Amino acid sequence: MSKLLLEKNKFIKQPFVKQGKNVKTPDVIEIENFNHPIFCFKHLHSNYKVSKCSDKQMKALLTKLEQLSQLSWNEIILAHKHGTGSEKIKKSSLKVKVPAFITDDVDFLLALRFDGMSPILVHRNRFIMHIIFIDHNMSTYNH
User: Fold this and answer.
1) CB under 8 Å to 8, separation ≥6 — which residues?
2) Are 44 and 135 spatial neighbours (Cβ–Cβ below 8 Å)?
């Protein structure tokens, strides 16, 4: 049976997916089972986005995201901050304004190194890694 989805005030028909003998199709994906980061670029700051990076930095960023996608959140949090791990950066120490979707109860962003010491600053919301700043020129906070 197909379902109707609402997208931009229009109903679209979701295709019916038939279960096979060896393949089960869940009605709902249980998001609690995700233990690895899912990347979101929706809230990326306009002065700290991919297009501001050099070709070398873009390659390093893509390599870093590929590497992070293979790790669990626990592995990222526990790893050394200058390796595959992260470091907490207080919001109050930032020189740039965070997007409005980051509420006042959030005290810090996570910094993950992608090109030498250059960090990406992210906000973790459950399993989603919201990439906020790609700090290509190391100017978002005092390093």
Assistant:
1) none
2) no
pLDDT for 80-119, tens place per residue?
887 777 899 999 999 999 999 999 999 999 999 999 999 9
Question: φ and ψ at 119, to 5 degrees?
Answer: -105, 160
Beta-carbon count within 10 A of 57 CB: 19
Q: CB atoms < 10 A from the CB of 123, how many? A: 20
Indicate the pTM of the whole model: 0.74
Q: Which residues contact 134 (CB under 8 A, 6 or more apart)?
A: 44, 48, 49, 50, 52, 53, 57, 61, 114, 120
Residue 71 identity: L
Bridging pattern class, strands 38-40 and 128-134? parallel
Q: Which residue has the tokens 């700043």?
A: 133
- C-beta of residue 117 within 8 angstroms of C-beta of residue 143: yes
